Amino acid sequence: MAPAPAAMSGRTNWSGECKNLWRVAGPVILASVFQFLIAFVTAAFVGHIGQVELAAVSIVNGVIEGLAFGLLLGMGSALETLCGQAVGAGQRQMLGIYMQRSWIICLATSLLLLPLYLLASPVLRLLRQSPAISAASGRYARWCAPQLFAYAVNFPIQKFYQAQSRVWAMAAISAAVLAAHALLNWLVVARLGRGMVGAAIVGDVSWWLLNAAQFAYLVGGSFPEAWTGFSRKAFANLGRFLRLSIASAIMLCLEMWYYTAVLILVGCLKNPEIQVGAISICMNYQLWTLMVALGFNAAVSVRVSNELGANHPKAARFSVVVATTTSAAIGLIFTAIALAARKQMPWLFTDDGAVVKETAKLGYLLATTIFLNSIQPVLSGVAIGAGWQSLVAFVNIGCYYLVGLPLAAVFGFKLKLNATGIWVGVLIGTVLQTVILIVILVRTKWQKEAMLAEERIRVWGGNVELPEARETSSSENIAAPV
Predict the structure, then answer these.
(1) Burial category of 395 from C-beta neighbours within 10 Å (exposed 0-12, middle 13-18, buried 19 and up)
(2) Does residue 472 have a pLDDT over 50?
(3) CB 306 within 8 A of CB 6
(4) How far apart are CA 86 and CA 98, in angstroms?
(5) What is the percent of the chain where pLDDT is above 70?
(6) Which candidate, 11, 71, 98, 66, places its Cα nearest to that of 303?
(7) Residue 431 pLDDT class (50, 70, 90 cuts)
(8) How much is the pLDDT for 204?
(9) Separation of alpha carbons 375 and 354, rounded Å
(10) What is the pLDDT confidence band of residue 271, given thresholds at 50, 70 and 90?
(11) Residues 207, 6: Cα–Cα separation, whole Å
């Protein structure tokens, strides 16, 4: 079986492997920033309408859409394992089937999440939000429901692109849509005065415009092997595919919600306004630095899955070393900036001297978190590329929710260390999780992982066989053809 060119390109040459990683990481970082700015632009225009409207949009983006976004991104991440390993194995014809299966699963998940959008107002009232903000949020969320289904289409197609290292088109499309989104918001919200409803409709149009452009690129002949049209095979044996999708969603959501829990805990402190503001500023800076690490998360996932699918275990291991080292080096730069600017950076976000002082006190914890978050997402990307989602999900539960958050509660409330104590507890959980993932990597037998990748293509893909399997299936009964 001839390996795919992408899998052959990175062996044990450091500069060559760096080029392979940046070829994916660079565009993914840009695409992530552009898509993140879609919500940012919406909030910026709505913020000029009124305080209640801005609060409503912020809460919907952070709570309602944040939940749906995380779940659907996690479900779509199953493709990073299967598509990446199929590309490495030279079985590109399987990618279109995998993507269609992911669309089915993600769209079904969107239907289950739809009541959250339709009933956002009573849900937020249960979370002790003010009646005015809850009512405005509910109205905005109902008009945002089409974006829920746009996410379900977007994430699988982006993972399809990433697996084949075709991500510059994704970045360019995201940039063009962001520009159109800003222009439409100016026209509909600022000039025509259509308010929150207009902003929600513009968001719907922008996300579906993103999907339309990506789909046009997909069917335009750029993927002659990987996309051969819609097929009934996409409905075959969805159960196995669903298991990996659920494991991916659990693994990702446990990580995303972990730091959301920090804000919730800090909000439960006495007189939390200053400390919530300080934590929010730190999280904002951390989010921007995290986008770089997430680019390497996607890149190392592609490289590891490609190389394992091509039966190149040594190249897969070397890719892990290069990606982790490179991301950590960049993390050190961001860490140094956080330390050097810990007293000046808060002034970019607030004019309140008390908030600035509290944020500066948290600067050392912020710097430590940034460095850890330059390594941890890369390790998670390795787990996705190798198909270890279920294992890492259990690790996350233990480290984050059985160790980190309980310690945060003890330090913050029992020992009265407030926001500093909460963050220290959370940081201990992150350190423990990172150490465990490093131990797992060190003890990994990569040759065995390459064999498992071949078996995964045959079995987890849902009865789509490799050529060798077809030749031997009559005698060995490895898999049945679709």
Answers:
(1) buried
(2) no
(3) yes
(4) 10
(5) 89
(6) 11
(7) very high
(8) 95
(9) 32
(10) low
(11) 30
Distance, in Å, from the CA atom of 108 to the CA atom of 102, rounded to the nearest integer, reads 10
What does the pLDDT read at residue 213? Answer: 96
Give the number of other Cβ atoms within 10 Å of residue 5's Cβ.
Answer: 12
Does the pLDDT at position 170 exceed 50? Answer: yes
> Distance between CA 76 and CA 402 in Å, rounded?
27
> How close are the terminal C-alpha atoms of the chain, in Å?
21
- pLDDT per residue over 292-322, tens digit each? 888 888 888 888 988 888 888 898 899 999 9
pTM over 0.85: no
Residue 477 has pLDDT above 90, yes or no: no
